[in-house]
Amino acid sequence: MRKPIIAGNWKMNKTQTETVELLNRIVENYTDVEVDAVVCVPFTSLSKASELLDNTMIHLGAQNMFYEENGAFTGEVSPNMLKDLGVEYVILGHSERREIFGEEDDLINKKVKTAINHKITPILCVGETLDERESGVYLDKVKTQILNGFAGIDSGDVSKVVVAYEPIWAIGTGKTATSEDANNMCKYIREVIAELYEAKIADNVRIQYGGSVKPENISELMSMSDIDGALVGGASLDSESYLALLNY
Ligand code: 13P
Questions:
Q1: Which atom of ligand 1 is nearest to the CA of 96?
Q2: Helices within 30-177 (DSSP H only)
Q3: Distance of CA 34 from the midpoint of ligand 1 (Å)
Q4: 94 is catalytic
Q5: What is the gyration radius of the CA atoms in the chain, in angstroms?
Q6: How do residues 144-171 score in pLDDT, each as one tens digit?
Q7: Any idea what the CATH number is for the domain that residue 137 is in?
Q8: Could you list the residue range(s) of the whole structural domain that residue 50 is in?
Q9: Whether the model pTM is above 0.85
Q10: Pairing of the two strands 162-165 and 206-210
């Protein structure tokens, strides 16, 4: 059985002071739920968030990471640095990293392998643009991202990866993919992983949907056969809506 995983991606939002306010509200009002609850906060908030979330049911995540352990990589953050702060999850290959910062599959694959080696759960993001959806190449696009993202990963490590399917046209636009479209792609991703390894392994991989998920649409999305969770931007920035998402 795949345990649902709901992760908030705060993106470049919340100062340290605002992080403390939001996390305190979340922790105070949190009621036990049957999902893995994750908050992926900015680097500058990780230390404070780590203190606040210690001994709570909320897991800590980062939004990016470099693949080397240390060295002359100005501006980068290493797996050891994240581990030291109690980080358990890391978002890798988010479409904003791919589109704005030019990250490509090869780099993202190195990061995924590094995260696994450091026992940090990678949340590997994939997804197509509106042009790719409309021109009909979206399945090929996502297949390539999955094949490249999993390159060189041992079969025993596959289920350590969480995949997030985020169609770029649905991010921050208020346009959600229909539950059927989202599920079809998540199912397709599982088939690609099954072809690459085997069906039994693919069945254990958790696949999230992301893109304008909110309290109003999460239960329908979560009722679909191949959607095991959500990666949520905007609606994770408010304690009430984040908690409503966890209690879908
Ligand atoms: P929104 O939920 O704001 O559409 O963002 C989705 C996203 O990019 C999460 O990683």
A1: 8
A2: 43-53, 79-84, 95-101, 105-117, 130-134, 138-149
A3: 22
A4: yes
A5: 17
A6: 999 999 999 999 999 999 999 999 999 9
A7: 3.20.20.70
A8: 5-246
A9: yes
A10: parallel
